[in-house]
Design brief:
The structure holds 2 protein chains of 2 kinds.
Chain A (H helix, E strand, L loop, with lengths): L4 E14 L2 E14 L3 E5 L6 H8 L7 E6 L2 E2 L5 H11 E4 L11 H12 L4 H11 L15 H13 L5 E5 L7 H16 L3 E5 L3 H4 L4 E6 L2 E6 L3
Chain B lengths: L1 H29 L5 E6 L17 H10 L3 E16 L2 E10 L3 H4 L4 E4 L4 H5 L4 E4 L1 H8 L8 E4 L2 E9 L13 E5 H8 L7 E6 L5 H15 L10 E5 H44 L1 H9 L4 H37 L8 H27 L3 H6 L2
Parallel strand pairs in B: 3-8, 5-7
Antiparallel strand pairs in B: 1-9, 1-10, 2-3, 2-6, 2-9, 4-7, 5-8, 6-7
Helix pairs in contact in B: 1-8, 1-10, 1-11, 2-7, 8-10, 8-11, 10-11
Classes of the chains: A alpha/beta, B alpha+beta.
Chain lengths: ~230, ~375
C-alpha cells in the first residue's frame, strides 16, 4: 500500500447565486486524502458536503482553488475532459442506485467501459458482477432486483473501470439496516484490497465504519479525525 | 412518427400519381400520330367570350394547303358530328367523322378486319362506313359487321371494316366512332360546307414549326385577315402539345410533391416534440450516463440516432403505405400511378434529413445538460 496523495485540494471555493443572495457553499476548503484511505464526510445540511462531493467527483469545477486528483490538476478542465476523468478515476455509488432502467445488470455494468471505448467489456462486466456476488442475477433488469442487489450492481459498475476513488453518496439511505450493513462491509472489503473509499453521509453509524471522519460546517472542515 | 409515415406516404403517392398521369397523357398524345399538325377553326366571339365554332374552314382551304405548302406528306379534311346509329333493333348515339382515306395514316389508325373505304368511294360519295371496335360490339354483339347495313340518321351505310382498338382516352374514345367519306358526310349526312379540322401529316424530318408557319400564312391570306387581326383558326403542333403537357404535369407533380413535403415537415416537428419529451423524461438517465463518463458527443449521438431511427422507420412505413395507396388509387380510379425509384429515394432521404434536422435541437439539449442538475431530476 502506498502513502501517496490521491486527492490534494487547496483553497476550494464554490459560490452559488440564488436570486440576489450569494452563498459560499465551500469557503477555502483544504483536503488531502491518501491512497487506500476509507473516509467519511459528514455534516449538517447546508454545510457544503454535497458541493464537496460534486467537486471530488469531478461533476463540477471550483470557482477558486486547485484540485489535484491522482497527480492531475482537474480544477480547470473542460466538460469533456472531466467526463473522461470521471470515467477513469471515479466510481459513483448513489443513494437511489441510479441504474439505467430497461437495461440488464450486466449492460449497466459494462456501460462505463463502452464509453471508455474498451474491448471485452462483457467479460469484465461479468467478472465484476461475480465479485459482488450477483452471478445469478446478471441478466435481470433493475426492477427485478432488490435494493441491496441494485446497490451491488451499482458498486460493480462503479469499479468496472478500476477507478482511483469509490465515491458513495448516502449509499445506505434507501436500504434497510441489514442490507445497508452488507454494503458497508463490501466497502470495507474493497478498502481492505487497497481501494480508496469516500462515503458522504449524515448517518453517524455509517460514518462509524470509516476510520477517518471529516465533519463540515459552513463550507469548511470543522473536524478531521482518525487520519493516518 | 405517424406524421413522418403520413408525410412520406403522401410524397410517394403524389409523385406516383403525377408521374403516372404524365406518362399516360404522353402515350395518348403520341398515339395520335407522328408529325401531326391539326388546323382547327378558332372560336368566334371576342375578348375570350366564346359563342360557338366558326364556320370558316372550308374544303378549298385543305386543297390549297396540300398544293401550296411544302413539306406536307398528306392531309385529311375532317367533318365531325354525331348521329344515331342503328342496326336491326339496336340503337346507339355515336360520333361520326367524315374523313379522307389518308386520315388513317395521319392519325395512326389501322384496320382490324375488312378494309378502309377507297378513294373512289370518297369521290363518288359512297355510303360506306368503317366502325370502331366498341361501336361494332354495341351494334353487332359479336356478329361479323362486314357488308352489313347500318343506318346513320336514317340513311343506309354499308360497313366495310372495323378499326383496331386504341384504348379509351378519357375525354374521347377513339374506339367508339364511325368513319365515313368526308364527301358523304358533308353533302348527305350533315349537310355542311365547313370542316371541323384539317389533319396534316408532315414529311419525315421536316421542321414542323416551319410547316406550321406557312400553313398559317396561307390560311391568313385565304381568309383575308388583316395584318393586325387575330387568326380565325389555330394550328396545333403535336410536339408543342407534348411539351405543354409535360411542363404542366411537371408543375402539377411539383405542386403535389411540395404539399406532401410540407406534411413531411410537420411530421418532423412531431419528431422534435417526441424527442424533447424523451429528453425531459430521461434527464436522470442522461445525468447517470454523464456521471459514469459519457461525453457531450456520445450523449448527442445517442439522441440523434434515436431520432433518425424514428424518422427512418417512419420513412419505411411511409413508403410502404404510399405505394399501397397509389396502387389502390390506380386500381379504383382512372389515375394510373407510377412509383419511381427516384421518388422512393427522395422521400427516404428526406425523412432521414428530417430526423437529423429535427433531432438536432433535442440532442443538443440533452448533451448540454448539467450532470448535477440531471442527477437531481425526479
Amino acid at each position: 500500500m502506498t502513502n501517496s496523495l490521491i486527492i490534494e485540494a487547496k483553497g476550494l471555493v464554490k459560490i452559488y447565486r440564488l436570486g440576489g443572495v450569494t452563498v459560499r457553499a465551500l469557503d477555502g476548503l483544504d483536503l488531502d486524502v491518501l491512497a487506500g484511505e476509507m473516509l467519511a464526510i459528514t455534516g449538517p445540511s447546508g454545510s457544503g458536503k454535497s458541493t464537496l462531493m460534486h467537486l471530488i467527483g469531478c461533476l463540477d469545477r471550483p470557482d477558486a482553488g486547485t484540485y489535484v486528483l491522482a497527480g492531475e490538476d482537474v480544477s480547470r478542465m473542460s466538460e469533456d475532459e472531466l467526463a473522461e476523468v470521471r470515467n477513469k478515476r471515479i466510481g459513483f455509488v448513489f443513494q437511489t442506485f441510479n441504474l439505467l432502467p430497461r437495461m440488464s445488470a450486466i449492460e449497466n455494468v459494462e456501460l462505463p467501459l463502452l464509453y471508455a471505448g474498451m474491448s471485452k467489456a462483457r467479460d469484465k462486466a461479468e467478472e465484476a458482477l461475480v465479485n459482488v456476488g450477483l452471478k445469478d442475477r446478471m441478466h435481470h433488469e433493475p426492477n427485478q432486483l432488490s435494493g441491496g442487489q441494485r446497490q451491488r450492481v451499482a458498486v460493480a459498475r462503479a469499479l468496472i473501470t478500476n477507478p482511483s476513488i469509490l465515491l458513495a453518496d448516502e449509499p445506505t439511505g434507501n436500504l434497510d439496516s441489514k442490507t445497508g450493513e452488507e454494503i458497508l462491509q463490501l466497502f470495507a472489503k474493497l478498502n481492505g484490497e487497497g481501494r480508496t473509499v469516500i462515503v458522504v453521509t449524515h448517518d453517524h453509524d455509517v460514518a462509524g465504519h470509516c476510520r477517518r471522519r471529516i465533519n463540515l460546517r459552513d463550507g469548511r472542515i470543522s473536524d478531521d479525525r482518525g487520519g493516518k | 412518427m405517424l406524421g413522418i409515415i403520413i408525410g412520406v406516404a403522401a410524397v410517394i403517392s403524389m409523385l406516383a400519381i403525377g408521374a403516372g398521369a404524365q406518362k399516360s397523357i404522353l402515350s395518348r398524345l403520341s398515339s395520335l400520330g407522328t408529325n401531326l399538325l391539326i388546323v382547327r377553326p378558332g372560336s368566334s366571339g371576342s375578348h375570350g367570350v366564346s359563342s360557338g365554332t366558326q364556320q370558316t374552314l372550308k374544303l378549298s382551304d385543305a386543297e390549297a394547303l396540300l398544293n401550296q405548302v411544302s413539306g406536307i406528306n398528306m392531309l385529311s379534311p375532317v367533318v365531325g358530328g354525331s348521329a344515331q346509329a342503328k342496326y336491326l333493333n339496336k340503337n346507339n348515339r355515336v360520333s361520326v367523322n367524315g374523313v379522307d382515306v389518308t386520315w388513317m395514316s395521319v392519325r395512326d389508325f389501322s384496320i382490324d378486319v375488312g378494309r378502309c373505304f377507297s378513294s373512289a368511294e370518297v369521290e363518288s360519295m359512297g355510303r360506306v362506313a368503317v366502325i370502331g371496335p366498341v361501336t361494332a360490339q354495341t351494334l353487332f354483339e359479336g356478329e361479323d359487321p362486314r357488308e352489313q347495313t347500318i343506318k346513320l340518321n336514317g340513311i343506309n351505310f354499308r360497313v366495310v371494316g372495323v378499326l383496331k382498338s386504341k384504348g379509351d382516352q378519357g375525354w374521347f374514345n377513339p374506339d367508339d366512332q364511325v368513319l365515313v367519306p368526308y364527301t358523304t358526310a358533308m353533302s348527305i349526312l350533315f349537310g355542311v360546307d365547313y370542316l371541323r379540322e384539317i389533319d396534316i401529316e408532315a414529311n419525315d424530318g421536316v421542321d414542323l414549326t416551319a410547316v406550321q408557319t406557312s400553313v398559317s400564312e396561307i390560311l391568313r391570306k385565304r381568309h383575308r385577315i388583316a395584318d393586325d387581326a387575330d387568326n380565325d383558326f389555330e394550328v396545333m403542333n403535336q410536339a408543342e402539345m407534348i411539351s405543354t403537357v409535360t411542363s404542366v404535369s411537371d408543375i402539377f407533380s411539383l405542386l403535389l410533391g411540395g404539399i406532401a413535403g410540407i406534411s413531411l415537415l410537420v411530421g418532423g416537428i412531431g419528431i422534435m416534440n417526441i424527442m424533447l419529451v424523451t429528453v425531459t423524461e430521461r434527464t436522470r438517465e442522461i445525468g447517470i450516463r454523464k456521471a459514469i463518463g459519457a461525453k457531450r458527443g456520445s450523449v448527442m449521438m445517442q439522441f440523434l440516432i434515436e431520432s433518425v431511427v424514428l424518422s427512418g422507420l417512419g420513412g419505411f412505413f411511409g413508403v410502404a403505405l404510399g405505394a399501397g395507396l397509389s396502387l389502390l388509387v390506380s386500381k379504383f380510379t382512372q389515375f394510373p400511378s407510377v412509383i419511381t425509384m427516384n421518388s422512393v429515394i427522395l422521400a427516404l432521404s428526406f425523412s432521414f434529413a428530417v430526423g437529423v434536422f429535427f433531432g438536432w435541437y433535442p440532442a443538443r439539449r440533452a448533451a448540454g445538460l448539467d450532470p448535477i442538475e440531471a442527477l437531481r431530476y425526479e
